[in-house]
Amino acid sequence: MGLYLREHTGAVVLSTVLHVAVAVTLTLGVRFSDRSQYPLPVEQVVIEATVVDEAMILREMERLEQQEQEEILRQQEQARLAREQAEAARRQLEEEQQRLEAVRQERERATQLEEQRLIDVQRQLEEAQRLQAEEELRLVKEREAEAQRQREERQRLAREAEEARRLAEMEAELQQALAVEDERRRAEESGLLDQYRRLIVNRIEREWIPPLSAQPGLECEVQVIQIPSGDIVDVRVGRCNGDDAVIRSIEAAVLNASPLPRPPIPSLFERTLNVVFAPDD
Fold it and tell me: What is the pTM of this model?
């Protein structure tokens, strides 16, 4: 308050003087009206006016100072309230910012967790797909290996069966050949083969028409090819002491002798017969 009065002394004095002047005028006016019938001495009026003016100035100054002090206190209170409100607003803003930051961080953390969860799920899915693909590939290979094993086993069994059949056939053929050979041997020993060949030669000789060029002592080696029915399919004349006409006549006689007599026993059948054509014997 003292600092304010020192800084604004002129304004305060002027205001005080004006207020005092107004008050004195009112007082003197009343007093003059009251005492107009009884005029006072000049010295007494001056003294009273001076005393009144100083007292009024002091009271006015005290009042103004009190008002100024109250104004300062009011302004200080308003400033304090404003500061408190600003501080409260600042704290509220900070709290709100902290809350929003916490929410943001929580959302960010939740987002990161979700992204990590999705990454883990994707990794697990890829791992499961990889394992499934490997398992399917393993099963395919196992099935292929099993199929290959079964094919090889079937082929082995088929080969073994074929080999067994072939051996059986060979054994049967061998036994049959041995039997035929044995039968043929016995037939040869008994003279049946010579008799069979003599029948064929006699059959050919009966069909032979000697040409004019045929000479006594004719002897030709003849190869006759026949089938089991005795039908002749081919004839060839080998070494022969006759001319071409004789050879042609012998070939014609062999073909005309078809079918040849069948052997007395099947084992004597020969597809290729080699006989000696000597009609003079």
Answer: 0.37
Looking at 68, 97, 126, which one is the last position of a domain? 97
Q: Do the domain assignments include residue 155?
A: no
Contact 274, 254 (CB under 8 A): no
pLDDT at 51: 54
CA–CA dist 201, 184 (Å, integer): 20
CA distances from 38 to 27, 34, 205 (A): 16, 8, 221
Please report whether residue 168 resides in a domain.
Answer: no
Domain membership of residue 207 (yes or no) is yes
Under 8 Å between Cβ of 180 and 267: yes
Quote the distance between the C-alpha of residue 71 and its chain's center.
Answer: 86
Calpha distance 273→241 (Å, rounded): 20
What pLDDT does residue 19 have? 55
Structure tokens at 238: 């080998």
**224 pLDDT tier (thresholds 50, 70, 90):** very high
* List of residues 6+ apart from 53 with CB closer than 8 A: 20, 24
Distance CA(111)–CA(129), nearest Å, equals 26
The domain tally of the chain equals 2
CATH classification at residue 255: 3.30.1150.10
pLDDT tens by residue, 170-212 = 888 888 777 767 766 776 667 788 888 888 889 999 999 999 8
Decide which of 71, 97, 123 is a domain's last residue: 97
139 in a domain, yes or no? Answer: no
With a cut of 90, say whether residue 41 has pLDDT above it. Answer: no
pLDDT for res 242: 87
CA distance 44 to 35: 13
Domain around 36: 2-97
Helix axis angle for 192-207 and 244-256, nearest 10°, is 110
